[in-house]
Each structure stands twice: as structure tokens, then as C-alpha cells.
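We give its fold:
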Amino acid sequence: MSRSRSPRSPRSEKPARAVAPWVRTRLRTAPWAAASLAALVLVTAYLAAALPRAVDAYETEGLRHDVRTTAPRNSVLELTAEPPGLELDLPVREAGLAPAVLRKQRDEARALLPEPLRTDPEQTVHGLRTVKRVDGLDPWLPRPDGISPQFVLSSPSDLTEHTTLRAGRLPAGTARAPEAAVTVKTAEALRLKPGSVVHVPGRVSAEPIALTITGIVEPRGPEGPYWAVEPLLRTPALAPLVGEEIKYYWQGALLLSPTSAPAMLSTTGEPEVFFRYMPTVGHLTGRDTDRLGAALDSAAGGPDLVKLREVVGPTGALITELDSIVDAYGSMREAINPVVAVAVFGIGAVAAVVLAMTGGLFVARRDSELALIRSRGASLTGIGLRLLGETSAVAVPAAALALGLAVVTVRGPDGGSGGPFGGIPLLPSVLATAAVALVAMLVLPLRAVVVHRRPRLHGGRDDLLSARPSRRRTVFELTVLVLAVGAVASLRLRGTADSGDHLVSAAPVLVGLIAAMVLVRIYPLPLRWAARPARRLRGAVGPLALARAGRTSSAGTLPLLALVLALTTAAFGGSVLAGVADARDRAALLATGADARIDGSVEWTPVPADLTEAVRGTAGVRDVAPLQIEYGVSLPSPGNTSAQPMSSALVGVEPGSYTRLTQRTGFGAFPAALLASTGKGGKEAAADTERVLPAIASPSVARRLGGTPQEIVSAAGVFRVRIVAVRPNTPALQGADFLLVNAADLTHRTNTALLVTGPEDGAALRAVVKAKSDALLVSMRTEERAGYVDSPLQSGAERMYLGAIGAGAGFAVVAVLLSLMQSAPERTTLLARLRTMGLTRRQGRRLLGLEALPQAILAAVGGTLVGWATVPLLAPGIDLFRLALATTPGFAPLDSAPLRADPWSLVVPAVAVVLITAVAAAGQAWWAGRKGSIKELRAGDAR
């Protein structure tokens, strides 16, 4: 009995899926390649995501630092207004100054301050004060030169919270019986005590206004905003009155109670109402700079001032120096950012090339596979989409992880408490990460589509010696050349002032790109020149290595480009950092004249006779140059009686020690023989006013005195000088005209300064000086130099350059490794076959090393030359002044900080590239020697 077959169900007729998913299969087949790509994308995306966050963080910190560290009297927002007008009755005017009324106006005005202006309510002060100081009429008040003391009358709010009562009680009083308090220092200087009555002139009647002192208080936090905005409130001052002779008188302050404040209306002090607001910076970011400047302009003279006047009266005015602080910060940021952008473009270009090299390596490893698939009918679209799926599965998670790491590790100032993203916008980091991921995802499928756009069975030779540049390549190179010339010309002419011109910032990258293209074109020439003498050498290693180097794939352009760009970036970045350090060193040296300077805070402060030897014996001191400096010496005008008066500093020096100092510092060096002593000095030569002293002068002094001896009348003596040399500067003085003479030839000899070479311990030197005199100050060059790094903008930009140099070095190493890995299978096979012909392991290591070195040496030499040429080429358009010195030109010893090539930054990276290449090639040869040769010797394997 035959069995009947059951009919198949529709589901059983559906063909089973026989092919495994492409992406999963490929990732499982080559896990190390996927992991390597993920690691590279992770690092590159992290750097890209961290960059905008780091810039935002140090810009924000810089703005907050500048506002926070400014003196309170400069950063305070002071709103002033006249008291109620004279057209009102006195009781009405006094009622308008009641404490409750002023407190209400303070709160309403504070609420009207435009964003992002915010103030600290704990540091807000209001009250009434006299704009004009009033005289103290009482005869018992101190009068040093017979001039009556003058007082500022002020009624600051919350006096109880900011003072400690030392004697008496706090003032109360009324407008008819005003009471006041004074600080301890004011009471001591002006002989005030509880119960004292100070009389000041009245405005209407001849009867003076009596102010009763009820208490003596000690300020709490005297350096805080409450007291520091108006220091006279806490500390009296002995002020000079300049006339035919200088006379001194006391200035002080009487702190009236708020209820006594209306009494000021009856004085001659021209009272005004004031409201002081201290700005807070915890909410400010670098992005608020423009908004903050606009808000200050509006509050000082715009629509917001109109709103404030509706509260305090039509005469209201907002006074602050905060706008100057914000403007100074903005100008420094605009000067620094374009310089930083040069480093950013450099490292970005290197990273992009390395990612492209990674795609090239994967395509080369899978060339036969893709060629076979293409020859069997696979479409370019299908191949591209499948490869895109592979790279996306690796690059997207790695980029997302990198973004998360950047958000976690790079936070805003103060720990980034401004939200889950650290108080820094996330969009720039997202865009940067997406760009890295996009490049990593597309480089493999695009490269594969271009290479396999036509089916092929076997590829011909594709080496640098036989490759001929196509027309498209020539057009591309000419286009890049034009862009590079335009960028360099623009940078030299306009500098980095236009921060929005990214072509200018990319000038070093474009120069490096052009250089790499030129090196690729001339690469075959040195190989051909070296091949001829190599044929005469014994052994086959040398000629074989050169032949192998010449057969490097034409895709080797990318490694060469990556190395040249990395070396150019490193050279430029190192030159920037070296230029910054050199500018700070020179500025500090100009400010002090030596490693240490000892002089008085007042001109003509004599140096004790035994101090020089005591300083010489201090640990670390190598030399001491004593000076006698006299400022403001009038210069004659020979042959021109109508010339404007001119003065100069007269500097008496000891030629031997001072010449050594000038040679060490490089400032106005001269031979000691120029100031040889005439033998006529000291008090016994006072009558000889016709003696002629050789002198070295600054250019303007030399033009003034001419070439004939001229008479000099000074406190050091009367004599004639003849200019024997002209120097633009000298260590004794900073940026001033000078006249150097031999101190031994002066009539009155007194050292006023010592320039010390060698000491590093300022404490030890200060102890020696203090033991001899309390009137002398010690200035250290190292301390002066540290003062030039004042803003987080500077330190942040320097960290960016250090990071760019480090990242560039890392990417250069990766480029070397990728270049060697691309040809690793072919080299391994070559070694296996040559070993069957008698090649030793030592010869194999030499072969691989010599094969890899030509391209590395070419990149090192080319990168060094490009870096050396790029720095002077771009130097006229880059001024490192604001990056080096925390001030503006004209307020520092230097006028500019030019960019100069740093030899170490040129040589060290180039040598490192060659050494890394040699070590990597030797390591590859060693690893290939350990493995067996059976797999490489199979017939039909890749050649």
C-alpha cells in the first residue's frame, strides 16, 4: 500500500533564508579590525566633542575671573540721583529720604537691571552722601599745616551688619539732632571719641550743623565691597594741597545713621542718593559677553536707564567701570581665538587624514573580496550600503560613547553645576562628534566604490614610481595652491583680527597640504638617485629595499600627507608656545633688569654701603651690578634755544659688572672700555665742571646732545658728557631715555639700586635686604613673569596648543602604524619566500626597515622644512602679545610678541617619526620571523 504525500502548506513552500546577515557576519569575522576602528573613532570623536566644551569652559572662566578679581570700586554698579528738589518743602524732602523709601527704591531698581546683570543682595548698599567734602570747623580737630580737615558725610545702610562696635553706641538721631559713628582709624587720626561734636558749615544759615559722635566701630571685612568701594569711609587720608608749597590736611568720613541722613540737606556738601549693587558672576558664561555689554550700555544710557529713572528720579545715572572690564575681556578673546583656531584646523586636518587612511587600509585588505563580489554582478550601491552598515555599526556607538565621555569629563567652571551638560551647550559637541562619525562611516564605502567602480580581475601595478597624475589631480592641486596663497597673503596683510575668516586660520594646513603634494610628485626622484649607487653595493638587501620602497602604493600619499600635516602642526604649535614663553621672559627681564632688582619705592633711596657685599654672599647670587639712578635730569639743547624741554635719567654704573649684565640679558650690550674712567671723580673733582665723561645714551638723548660735549647739571655733580655709543635699551631702566656714565667719575657717589644675577629664592634675598634696610624693595624676575599669566583665557589657550601638539603626535604614530599595516601581509609573504632563498632574520629586519625609512625620512625632512618655512611666512600676521602678556600694548615692557621658529619643535618631532617608523618596521620583522611560513607559501595566496 503506497503512502500518499500530504500537500505542503504555504509556509513550507517559502524558501529558507540561507545567507547570514552581512554586517553581523563581517563584524564576527574581523573583530579586531572593528575594535580598532571603534577605538580610533572613540578617541577622535572625544577630542572633537571636548574641544568646543574646553573652549567654552576657559572662556567662561576667563570672564568670571576678570569680573571677580577686579577691584570692587571698578566693578560696582552705582546708581545715583539728586535728592528731592528745592522746590519742595523741607519736611517733604526729608520724607523722601526716609529709610523705608530708599529701601523700596533700591529693590525696585535692582529688579529693573537687564539680564544678564545680576547682583548680590547681601552686598547691596544704599543711602545719602555728600559729593563735596565739608570742612570741620572745630578748633580741636588736627591741622598739620593749619588747614581744616574735610569730611565726607555718608549714611550707608546696614552699618550694624558690617561693623563691630568698639566704644559708645551706634548712631540713631534725627534730621534735627544728627548722630554719626567713625571707624577706629578715623577716630585715632582726627582725635574723635564718643560724645565729640563736629561742626560743619550750614547751607542756609550761618549757624553750623552739629554732628554728635556716638560710637567708634571696627569694619568687618575691610577689603569687601561695602568698604572698598569708598576707602575713605574706613581709613582717613592725609591729602596734599599743592600750591607754592605743598601743605597737608586730613580727610575723613562721618557715618551718619539713616534717620539722620536728611540733615545733609542743610550742609554745603551737595548730597546725593546712591544705590550700590555688586554684580555676581556665577551665572555668566563666555557667550554672555555681548549681551552683558549691551545690557550695561542700555542701563547706562539707553532704554533701561529710562526705567531706572522712573524709580529714582529724572536725574538718575548709572556709573560703572564694568563695561571696560567686559570690553577688555572681549578684545583679549578676539585676539587669542584666531591663534587657537590655527591649532584646531591643524589637528582636525590630521585626524581627517588618519580616518581616511583607516578606510584605505580596510579597502586594501578586502580588495580581492570586493573585486570578486563586483565581478559576479554586485552593484556599487549594494556594496556601498553594506559597507556603510558595517562602519555605522562600529562608528555610531563609539561616537555616542565619546560624546558621553566628553560631557562627563569636560565640565564648566566650578564643577559645571549649570545643568546636566555642565553648563555648556551640547550642540557644538554633537555636531563635532557627528562630523567624525560621518567621516568614519563614509570613508570605507566611498573608497570601495571609487576603486571598484568597474569590475576587474587583477589590478596592475599601482605604485608611486609608475603612477601618473591625472588631470583631476592636477586641477585639485592647483586649486589648493591658489587657496593657500590667498590664505597666506590674507594672514600676512590682515593678521588674525578677523576671527570669522576660517581660510586665514587654515593657512598652515593649506601650506602643509601643498608641501605634501609636492613631496609626492618628487618622491620617485630620490629613490631613482639612490638606486644607482645601491646596485654597486654587496648584497641584495639595499637594492631590494629601494625597489620595494618605490613600489609603495600610490595610496601612500595619505600617510605622507598625515605626517607632513602633523609635523607642521607640531612645529607651528611649538613655535607659538616658545614665542609666548620667550615674550614673557623678555618682558620680565625688561621689567626687573636682572634676575632680581633691589631699589626703593621712592626715588633716590640710598643703598647701604655694606648691602652689596651682603647680597654677593647670598646663596645662588653670581653677580651684582650696583647702580646710581637719578631721574628727571634736564638736558641742554645745543644750537636750538627754542627746543622743548627734555629730561632723561642719569645712570652711574660700574662698567665691569654692568657690561657682564648687558651681555647676559642681551639688552644694550657694550664693551666696558667705552666707559673707561677719566680718573676725575669724587668730591675733590666738584670744582672741575669742564671734565668730559664718556656716556652711552638712548637714541633720543643722543639726538638731543649731538656729537659735541654738553654740560649736565645733576645732583650727582656738574660735568660734561660726550656720547660714545647709542643703545636702544638698557637693563637699568624700562622704556625710558637714559644716559649711562661711569659711576666712579661722579661727584656725589651713592648707589640707589642693585641688579642681581642668579638668585632664585626671593625669601632669602629679602631677608638679607630687610636686615640692612626697611626702605628697599626686592623684585624677582620669576615673580614678575608669573604675573603675566593672569587670565584663564591665556592658560586655556596654552592648554589647547599643548593638547593639539600631543594629539598631532598621537595621530602621527597612528599614521605610521596604519601605513605599515596596509602592506603587512605582502611584506610577511615576501619575507617567507626570501627565507627559502637563504635570507637571514637579520637581513629580513634590515630589509623591512630600509623599505619603510625612505617615506618616513621624506616626511620628516619635508615636514621640518615646511614647518620652518611656515613660521616666518605667517609670522607677520600673528602677534602673540595678548596670549603672552595679561595686558594691552603700551602697558607692558614689550610692544609686540612676534612668532619665531623653535628649533626643538622642528627637529624633535621629525626625528621621532623616523625612529618610530624604524622601530615599528623592526617589530613587524621580528613578529613575522616568529611565525611559520606555511600559510604565506601556499600557492594562490596574495602576492
